[in-house]
Task: structure prediction
Amino acid sequence: MVLTAFPSADTARFRAKGPRQLDEISARYGLTPEITTAIRLISQVLPFRVNDYVLENLIDWGDVPADPMFQLMFPQGGMLGPEDERRLAKVAGDRAGTRELVNRIRARLNPHPSGQKQLNVPRLHGSDIAGVQHKYRETVLYFPGQGQSCHAYCTYCFRWAQFVGDADLRFAAARPDELIEYLHCHPDVTDVLVTGGDPMVMSTERLASHLMPLLAVESVQTIRIGTKSPAYWPHRFVTDNDADDVLRLFESVVRSGRHLAVMAHFSHPRELRTDLARAAVSRIRSTGAVVYCQAPMIARVNDDAATWAQLWRAELAAGAVPYYLFVERDTGPHEYFKVPLAKAVRLFQEAYRQLPGLARTVRGPVMSATPGKVIIDGVETTPRGRFFQLRMLQARDPSLAGRPFRALYSPSAAWLTDLQLDLTAPQDIAAAVLGRPSPVRASA
Ligand code: SF4
Result:
């Protein structure tokens, strides 16, 4: 392992900043009273967290509020809609009234999209397993309880419900014991995605207590770690006290013969422009892990082709693999951030055409929806009209994976449920897409 030395000036300690530090942030960066008030209002409903690294390195304060990184991390007026924002302002000062209204608004924001709570929770000895989801035959998602926060929060986060302090909305497992027992009973599961939140908020010791038991399960071949820490707190791999230990932990996983995939979330090329972020990726790669990159296309943040082409080129230059461009999920402030599918596929293709072959590993736009991952391959015009060409990239029902189908073209549709399937769509795909999925709800 090559340990790159890094200047001591960058040995910052992580300190989360949220609504309580908003006045300090406003004063330091000159936010207007209107913007500050809007952040305070909306962050009662949606989680808000930043840190000094993102504040100092990722936001262009001369371009606020339009700056894409400011939009990415700071709750904004308009995210909840005028009616809810007016009501929230009206109950200001009434704690019980605010709490009740906040809960009502959250419940309407589809906190668990794609049937996560009803369809994906596996069972062991007749009971649901906490902190585990099993949607696709080969892959389970594991949510370590101590990893259910992030170094900063994205305003578009589809897991926002994990961060709002409501136990009913949260997936989390204190220990991996039940997961391990479940995996022993289900040798079809070859991949475990450790996710959150962000597992990299945990100390190395804690992370090891969740990862190492997985190495005792022979059928597990790939361990994926979903993280945005190379973008939001790259110190985690470079200058944190246990940064070297985490690299040694990764090396142990790789030495066990497993594929270690770090699923890095980069939303904008600016996140890869700092020396620290590139050093983080380089150090992760030095362990034998492979860094795959993914993010959704979000209005106001990255909904233009040049941004994606720059991002994918920067990922490739850092030795990482451009992997997925997702469609923003139908949860949280979806109305504020959504990009119509017609626009998303046009921008994806425009960006893709600008890439060298090695960066064309990226796929998209992809909707991670209830029946599975649906990719929009393009738009075709036929004598019968215009259609979206769609394909099940991954499916809850494995027999659907890889199969194409079509939906009527719509300039405004922004999610699978907005689409009308063409009559030629195979019956089993139509049944899955129209809401009769066959759940993977295995029990042991
Ligand atoms: S890093 Fe991921 S889990 Fe954390 S807030 Fe952003 S999108 Fe959500």
